[in-house]
From TrEMBL, chain A:
It comes from the Bacteria. Gene3D superfamilies: MetI-like. This is Sugar ABC transporter permease. Residues 73-288 form the ABC transmembrane type-1 domain. Signal peptide: none annotated. It is found in: Cell membrane. GO terms for biological process: transmembrane transport. The keyword Flavoprotein does not apply. InterPro entries: ABC_transporter_permease, MetI-like, MetI-like_sf. Belongs to the binding-protein-dependent transport system permease family. It is a multi-pass membrane protein. Keywords: Cell membrane, Membrane, Transmembrane, Transmembrane helix, Transport. One of its GO terms (cellular component) is plasma membrane.
TrEMBL record, chain B:
Belongs to the bacterial solute-binding protein 1 family. PANTHER family: ARABINOSE-BINDING PROTEIN-RELATED, BINDING PROTEIN COMPONENT OF ABC SUGAR TRANSPORTER-RELATED. Residues 1-21 form the signal peptide. Part of a binding-protein-dependent transport system for a sugar. This is Probable sugar-binding periplasmic protein. It comes from Chitinibacter bivalviorum. GO terms for cellular component: periplasmic space. Keywords: Signal, Transport. Its main location: periplasm. It comes from the Bacteria.
From TrEMBL, chain C:
It comes from Chitinibacter bivalviorum. The lineage of its organism: Bacteria, Pseudomonadati, Pseudomonadota, Betaproteobacteria, Neisseriales. It is a multi-pass membrane protein. GO terms for cellular component: plasma membrane. This is Carbohydrate ABC transporter permease. Its main location: membrane. The keyword Disulfide bond does not apply. The keyword Mitochondrion does not apply. The chain crosses the membrane at residues 12-30, 89-108, 115-135, 155-174, 195-216, 258-280. InterPro entries: MetI-like (IPR000515), MetI-like_sf (IPR035906).
């Protein structure tokens, strides 16, 4: 906090707050007001449309009894771990490779980055084809004479969530690459030079010096990826529709189909609250540490 | 919330809200071949009456996205003039107090005289018409490509035992017996026909209309589930997620021999220029020749603020029920008119058969609502039952007994 | 790689490096390749051939059909109308949310006041909201505001939901601008607005690029809000694409579907191809500093 000095005028002191007020009120009313409203709904008997008849914890009890909900939660776990971990691994690797002064860097970078430009609806449609056993990769392999080749994850209940991971990685890992490339370019060259003169090997330099310097980037990337993971909705809708059965359901699609397709607004609201609680559990500590840092810095 | 509302009202005083006069906005999900043609006919007729048609089509998943859009529109206090809603959902929307009565039109045109009670009861909320039916679909059909049956020397099945003999013969001849689309609503469509054929009409009513838990988990249900699961080896593994009309086109193009589907599938056959009785056969699903699962498309009408739009609504209600529209629409869509006073001369043999069976089963009491198509249960119960059926179909480790007890639990969903 | 003398092992590593980069490029390109080739094949060829094969005869019929004559419900005007709806929506939404983000970021980094961190935290949490939570209450609110299913309403929704991310971007960037600059300007008698226009904005090009690209992509590609808050003639292109791709007569025209998907994706792809370097440059300039 910079303390206001004496020559701050009255207007100067209040103007920033005034200018900020609209945005603040917008988020207060819309985001927090709606969260509260949604929270209230989760304790009501709301069905087709919101109603305000108090029902206590009934919706939560129903939710925790619902097998499909737990499938969705488990899927989110699988998806989040593989998607975040995979994007990080691929992104960091590609960034390091690209940082080796390669030719055509700009073109290659654009290639890696463009999937981010596509909507999940488009991504889902394209991968749905590629992974469809009768149309895509499997058929291609058969046509080439590898008749034993099978790749039927898309239509296999046990594996369908992994197809969502594949498409998700394709979409987001290039973006992670861009973030890390930016981070690598921001690392001070003189430290690396000094380490090289000391005879440290390249992998060692990366491991010991450069990656630790990228900690803030790792952190913001983790944040961005976890929020993509929690919100993944269009991708599942376009790729598997939550199928086969409901084997690739995620909490976001679960909430959508309960609240909107099935007229169980109360149950949908309860599942949304659980999602919010999860997000809060991840984000609040992060925000806290962010702001602590600012106060000290 | 109240104070906030007032504040926002005050804030929005400056924003006048206007709708073009006599514009009739209709929310529907008829976006595929025969259905889109039928919807275009409706638009033409409305425009001939001097109304401006505002199309609000939302595709996908048997109207799932359309229902989402409808809900937000109603919540925002700005519903469309009419929306495609059917079955018990009409009552649910009625309970929310957002539907408007079209009883004036219905009385003037004598709807009660031309609609069978089983249909008109669904269209009324507290004794007043709030919706207009446009058709009756029969769901328990089996569509057959006769050429393929001939190739395999197999005969048209009338019972489930015969069905499996036919399917095995087809498979032996290297023909895929069953075209199948693996989406939850399609799984349940097939399952429903199996249940009606294996369990019979009384079992069907007890289980799916009265939701009796003992019947839901009883030995007959287990047998139904086992029979249903026996179909799986006769489908291809790429069925997962396939749209129904793509499965139908497999039968049309000779890639598969049979499909269980309601008679909207006929619209696809006709759109492909196929002749019923020659290029394709329509027979009742095995064991259900004397029963009829009905699925009625209807439009419910919403309360509007705008007077001009109300006139458009009444025009729409009367157009939907007019003999001309019911005829042209159903010729396109594969269903039969909801009005029972129309000549079926222009219809093909499948349509004629459907109309005869509709009257006959109605008299016998074996006319039953299709629960898979939202004619018998609330959407939440129906969704929960969908989940079990779909899970059972896809999960080869689940026993029929477990599935039956899950069904009983799902039937309790409020 | 400062060494000028190339040993054979080094050459091997270079080779391996390019191999790995090319392999990754193939992975990223494959779906696009499939989409593009499929969209210029005839329907017969698609059914007979396989996915990866090069088209034997290139035809752009599918493209013209997707753009101007494919049917979505009762209207058969292709995607062109939806496309312009999206353009009309995306420009104001991106401009407003970027501007708000810039001013908010400026205040939250350079004009702190007691509690400003809390304000920032609250706005930031908005980045992580699952948007499904907003649908019903937002619908009700838009109804009260008289903005239900208008393009204006859709712009409003995107601004409300997008300001959180843009604020985050700008604040993190501005934190890196030395406070001394501001102090010096204040001593010269410049006020709140003047510092913003004269000093801060001219330094903001990289982050403005990042924010514009990010917001453009997000808003252009949104499906959920489009399907829920826009009706018939205001629907954005993602909804049009969904209507078209789910509209299948007995013959599923994969080539038209793919052409439609590409049309829907074209603006954002072009933005990345032509402005991608500014995006990476902007990130380098400090948008990702933790």
């Amino acid at each position: 906090m910079s303390t206001p000095t004496a020559h701050y005028g009255f207007a100067e002191r209040w103007l920033p707050r005034l200018v900020l007020a609209p945005s603040f009120l917008l988020s207060l009313i819309f985001l927090y007001g709606f969260i509260a409203w949604n929270g209230y709904l989760s304790f009501t008997t709301s069905r087709l449309l919101p109603s305000y008849e108090w029902a206590g914890l009934v919706q939560y009890a129903t939710l925790f009894d619902n097998e499909r909900w737990w499938v969705a939660v488990r899927n989110l776990g699988i998806f989040a771990v593989l998607f975040i971990g995979g994007s990080m691994a691929i992104g960091i690797t590609l960034a390091i490779l690209l940082d080796q002064k390669v030719r055509f860097e700009g073109a290659i970078r654009t290639l890696y980055l463009y999937p981010m430009a596509l909507s999940f609806v488009v991504t889902g449609t394209a991968w749905k084809w590629m992974l469809n056993p009768g149309l895509g990769l499997e058929k291609l392999m058969h046509d080439w004479g590898f008749t034993n080749f099978t790749f039927d994850w898309l239509v296999n209940s046990d594996m369908s969530i992994y197809t969502v991971v594949i498409a998700g990685l394709w979409q987001s890992s290039g973006f992670v690459m861009a973030l890390f490339l930016a981070g690598l370019r921001g690392v001070d060259d003189s430290i690396i030079k000094a380490a090289q003169i000391d005879g440290a090997s390249l992998p060692r330099i990366y491991w010991k010096i450069i990656l630790p310097a990228l900690r803030p980037v790792v952190f913001s990337t983790l944040m961005i990826l976890s929020h993509i993971a929690i919100k993944s909705f269009d991708l599942v809708m376009a790729l598997t529709g939550g199928g086969p059965g409901f084997s690739s359901d995620l909490p976001a699609t679960f909430m959508y189909s309960m609240a909107f397709t099935r007229g169980q607004t109360g149950l949908g609201a309860a599942s949304a609250m659980m999602m919010l609680a999860t997000v809060a559990a991840i984000v609040v500590p992060y925000l806290y540490s962010e702001l602590r840092k600012d106060n000290n810095g | 919330m109240r104070n906030l509302k007032l504040g926002l009202m005050a804030a929005s005083m400056g924003l006048a809200f206007s709708v073009h006069a006599a514009e009739v906005e209709v929310l529907h999900y008829w976006t595929s071949g025969g259905e889109a043609k039928a919807a275009a006919e409706l638009k033409k007729m409305m425009e001939a009456k001097g109304n401006k048609w505002k199309d609000f089509a939302v595709a996908g998943g048997g109207g799932e996205n359309a229902m989402t859009a409808l809900k937000t529109r109603v919540v925002s206090g700005n519903p469309p003039a009419a929306a495609q809603i059917k079955g018990p959902s009409i009552q649910e929307w009625g309970d929310e107090g957002v539907l408007t009565s079209i009883d004036g039109v219905a009385k003037k045109e004598g709807w009660d005289k031309v609609l069978p009670p089983v249909v008109s009861n669904v269209m009324k909320y507290k004794g007043q018409y709030v919706a207009a039916p446009v058709n009756v679909h029969r769901v328990n059909w089996l569509w057959i490509n006769p050429e393929l049956l001939k190739k395999a020397n197999a005969k048209v099945p009338n019972t489930w035992d015969e069905f499996f003999v036919t399917a095995a013969a087809l498979q032996k001849a290297g023909i895929q017996p069953l075209a199948y689309g693996g989406q939850p609503w399609q799984d349940s469509t097939v399952f429903e026909s199996v249940a009606l054929g294996v369990g019979g009409v009384d079992f069907y009513k007890k289980a799916f209309v009265q939701l009796d838990p003992a019947t839901m988990s009883g030995p007959t249900m287990i047998k139904v589930l086992e029979t249903y699961k026996k179909l799986k080896p006769f489908t291809d593994k790429n069925a997962s997620g396939r749209e129904w009309n793509l499965a139908t086109s497999m039968v049309i193009n000779g890639k598969a021999a049979m499909q269980f589907m309601g008679d909207w599938a006929k619209g696809e056959f006709l759109a492909a220029g196929k002749v019923p009785g020659k290029d394709f056969l329509c027979v009742a699903a095995p064991g259900t020749a004397n029963a009829y699962t009905f699925n009625i498309d209807s439009f419910a009408f919403f309360k509007l603020k705008d007077k001009d739009a109300v006139k458009g609504q009444m025009d729409l209600a009367s157009t939907l029920m007019s003999p001309e529209f019911q005829e042209v629409f159903n010729l396109n869509k594969g269903s039969i008119p909801a009005r029972t006073d129309l000549s079926m001369a222009k219809f093909d043999e499948c349509g004629k058969k459907s109309a005869e069976d509709f009257k006959a089963t109605s008299a016998k009491g074996s006319l039953v609502p299709s629960w898979a198509h939202g004619m018998a249960m609330h959407s939440s119960t129906q969704g929960a039952v969908y989940d079990v059926v779909t899970q059972f179909w896809n999960d080869d480790k689940m026993s029929a007994k477990d599935a039956a007890s899950k069904l009983a639990a799902a039937a309790k969903t409020k | 790689m400062a060494n000028a003398e190339r040993t054979s092992s080094e050459r091997f590593w270079r080779f391996a490096l390019y191999g790995a980069l090319l392999f990754a490029a193939a992975y990223y390109l494959l779906p696009l390749y499939v989409m593009v080739t499929t969209s210029v094949k005839g329907i017969e060829e698609i059914r007979a051939g396989n996915l990866i094969a090069m088209p034997t005869a290139i035809t752009f019929d599918a493209w013209s059909k997707a753009w101007s004559s494919a049917c979505t419900g009762v209207s058969c005007n292709g995607l062109s109308g939806y496309f312009w709806n999206s353009v009309r929506m995306v420009i104001p939404a991106v401009a407003i949310s970027t501007m708000l983000g810039a001013i908010n970021g400026y205040i939250l980094s350079k004009w702190r006041f007691p509690g400003s961190n809390l304000v920032f935290a609250m706005i930031l949490f908005g980045v992580f909201m699952p948007f499904q939570v907003l649908l019903l209450p937002m619908a009700q609110t838009l109804g009260w505001l008289g903005l239900a299913n208008t393009t204006t309403g859709l712009v409003f929704v995107h601004v409300v939901c997008g300001t959180a991310s843009t604020t985050l971007f700008f604040r993190n960037y501005y934190v890196g601008i030395p406070d001394e600059l501001i102090k010096a300007a204040r001593l010269d008698g410049a006020g709140f607005w003047r510092i913003f226009w004269r000093i801060i904005l001219p330094m903001s090009t990289p982050i403005i690029m990042v924010t514009l690209i990010w917001q453009f992509t997000q808003i252009w590609n949104d499906f959920l809000f489009g399907v829920v808050f826009a009706s018939g003639d205001a629907q954005p292109i993602t909804v049009g694409l969904n209507n078209l791709a789910n509209t299948s007569t007995s013959v599923k025209e994969y080539n038209v579907d793919m052409a439609a998907a590409l049309i829907a994706a074209l603006p954002t792809i072009l933005v990345y191809v032509f402005a991608g370097k500014y995006f990476v440059r902007g990130l380098t300039a400090g948008a990702v500093k933790g």
